[in-house]
């Protein structure tokens, strides 16, 4: 369960405060996969980052006893001067994996991400698709209660997209996912409930199809 | 996933960051390990040569040792300030993982610099014994305490500059510019007692002068700490430490989502 209590989040800009969320409260029930929809700049990514505890509400609280992955975004969340391998090692270490587990994870990520020689090169040489492949592969090597996925499924070529979607479908048998996507097909396939972020408010829907309907209507 | 205690989490983060920083620090070019030792060695040799050629070695002090001690301490200060003030920005990508806090990156860099200095000290002490230099330390305990104090001072100072540098871009550049020439006004290769009084009065404001005098006094029987104002050093340590830690805990969340 994830509970938002009176959460307000804004960014200070030169044109005053820009509100992402205004005094929002609601509860996401247990054991559902959540799709998050909204226009660009509506605060989907910020919401994800708050759930991943690397962005903090200005007011209010987010309460949950679940473990969350890092936010798998297009940008990656990697240190650009480290190689792919070093980044994987680093993440395994900060999650307290033993040397043996680290070696196993490295092998797995290397194989899944299909980066080949790029795995031994600094992240700054990667394309955004390659970064997403790495971050997605890496997340599969851990057991979180929730995976936070920000658009990563919609990059990469068609074959890899299919492969990662299949891997994700298998993964969510044992965990849940919070997914930001503009791909309605993916949302329908994976998510049960939906949240639409619009005009600094979050609208919660028990059925993802209703969320998609609302999203379609605000886009008219 | 298994629940870990905060200390367990921080320990694994520090360990991971430490290994990362070691890799960065020792990988400047292909001969990283070599340069870590060779750079201070060159620096010290040049200053020893200049000193001996210009002024002769007619003193009761073992000048190579005097200068080596000064440079090891000064380099420790310079590197600590330099590495501390850039720590927050350099590891920005890693804040994507919630257990990595900015202060961890600073602590990891601090540990790496201590390791590097430790290696350098071991090499120079070995060389000193081999070459028959003056290795007779007057007060080893105080010498080590002096170094610990210098580390605390440098890190507080670096942390303060690092935090201020987050808001004022040019701030760090100015500090970097000042760090190198600071070498000449910090009593590294000369003793305050040999300076003319007018100069002494100016140099006296530099806290590093006090640190150097303290370290030299504790090493050599022939020198004393008459020029060291301990309360002045205490102010220079406590004030930056207090302000920077206070600012840090206010701004930590802001630094993470920068």
Summarize this structure as a short list of keywords or feature phrases.
heterodimer, A: about 220 residues, alpha/beta, Rossmann fold, three-stranded antiparallel beta sheet, about 35% helix, B: about 260 residues, mainly alpha, about 0% strand
Q: Layout of SSEs?
A:
The complex is a heterodimer of chains A (220) and B (258).
Chain A: E1 2-13, E2 16-28, E3 34-38, H1 44-51, E4 59-64, E5 68-72, H2 84-94, H3 99-113, H4 128-140, E6 146-150, H5 158-171, E7 176-180, H6 184-190, E8 193-198, E9 201-205, H7 208-218
Parallel strand pairs in A: 3-7, 3-8, 5-6, 6-7
Antiparallel strand pairs in A: 1-2, 1-4, 8-9
Helix pairs in contact in A: 2-3, 3-4, 4-5
Chain B: H1 6-25, H2 32-55, H3 63-90, H4 102-131, H5 140-167, H6 169-179, H7 197-203, H8 207-219, H9 230-256
Helix pairs in contact in B: 1-4, 2-3, 3-4, 3-5, 3-8, 5-6, 5-8, 5-9
Task: Specify Rg of chain B, calculated over alpha carbons.
Answer: 20 Å
Q: How are the strands of the biggest sheet of chain A laid out side by side?
A: 5-6-7-3-8-9
Distance between the termini of chain B: 28 Å
Q: Give the second-level CATH assignment, the architecture of the largest domain in chain A.
A: 3-Layer(aba) Sandwich
Number of helical regions of chain A: 7
- On the 0 to 100 scale, the average pLDDT of chain A is 87
What number of structural domains do the residues of chain A give?
Answer: 2
By secondary-structure content and strand pairing, the structural class of chain A works out as alpha/beta
Kindly report how far apart the N and C termini of chain A lie. 33 Å
Taking all Cα atoms into account, the compactness measure Rg of chain A is 18 Å
How many structural domains does the protein architecture of chain B include? 1
Largest sheet of chain B: none
* Unreliably modeled segments of chain A: none
Low-confidence stretches of chain B: none
Name the helix and strand elements of chain B from N-terminus to C-terminus, one letter apiece: HHHHHHHHH
Strand elements of chain A, count: 9
Structural class of chain B: mainly alpha
């Amino acid at each position: 369960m994830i509970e938002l209590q009176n959460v307000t989040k804004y960014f200070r800009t030169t044109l005053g405060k820009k509100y992402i969320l205004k005094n929002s409260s609601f509860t996401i029930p247990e054991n559902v996969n959540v799709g998050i929809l909204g226009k660009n700049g509506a605060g989907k990514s910020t919401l994800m980052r708050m759930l991943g505890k690397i962005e903090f509400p200005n007011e209010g609280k987010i309460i949950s006893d679940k473990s969350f992955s890092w936010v798998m975004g297009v940008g990656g969340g990697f240190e650009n001067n480290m190689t792919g391998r070093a980044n994987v090692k680093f993440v395994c270490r900060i999650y307290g994996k033993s040397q043996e587990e680290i070696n196993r994870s490295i092998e797995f990520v290397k194989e899944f991400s299909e980066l080949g020689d790029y795995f031994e090169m600094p992240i700054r040489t990667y394309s955004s698709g390659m970064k997403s492949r790495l971050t997605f592969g890496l997340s599969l090597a851990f057991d979180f209660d929730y995976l936070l996925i920000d658009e990563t499924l919609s990059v990469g070529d068609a074959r890899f997209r299919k492969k990662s979607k299949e891997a994700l479908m298998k993964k969510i048998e044992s965990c849940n996912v919070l997914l930001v996507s503009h791909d309605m097909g993916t949302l329908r396939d994976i998510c049960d409930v939906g949240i639409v972020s619009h005009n600094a408010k979050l609208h919660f829907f028990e059925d993802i199809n209703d969320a998609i309907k609302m999203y379609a209507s605000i886009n008219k | 996933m298994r629940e870990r205690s905060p200390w367990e989490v921080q320990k694994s983060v520090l360990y991971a960051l430490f290994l990362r920083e070691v890799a960065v620090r020792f990988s400047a070019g292909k001969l990283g390990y070599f340069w870590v030792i060779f750079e201070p060695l060159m620096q010290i040799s040049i200053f020893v040569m200049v000193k001996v050629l210009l002024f002769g070695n007619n003193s009761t002090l073992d000048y190579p040792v005097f200068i080596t001690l000064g440079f090891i301490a000064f380099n420790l200060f310079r590197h600590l300030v330099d590495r501390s003030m850039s720590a927050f920005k350099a590891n920005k990508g890693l804040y994507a993982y919630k257990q990595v806090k900015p202060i961890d990156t600073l602590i990891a860099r601090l540990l790496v610099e201590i390791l590097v200095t430790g290696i350098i000290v071991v090499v120079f002490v070995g060389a000193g014994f081999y070459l028959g230099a003056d290795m007779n330390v007057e007060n080893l305990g105080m010498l080590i305490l002096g170094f610990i104090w210098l580390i605390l001072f440098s890190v507080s100072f670096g942390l303060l500059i690092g935090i201020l540098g987050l808001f004022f871009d040019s701030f760090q550049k100015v500090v970097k510019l000042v760090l190198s020439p600071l070498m000449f006004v910090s009593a590294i290769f000369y003793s305050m007692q040999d300076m003319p009084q007018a100069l002494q009065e100016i140099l006296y404001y530099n806290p590093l002068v006090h640190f150097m005098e303290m370290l030299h006094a504790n090493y050599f029987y022939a020198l004393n700490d008459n020029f060291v104002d301990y309360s002045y050093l205490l102010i220079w340590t406590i004030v930056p430490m207090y302000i920077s830690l206070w600012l840090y805990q206010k701004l930590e969340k802001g630094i993470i989502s920068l």
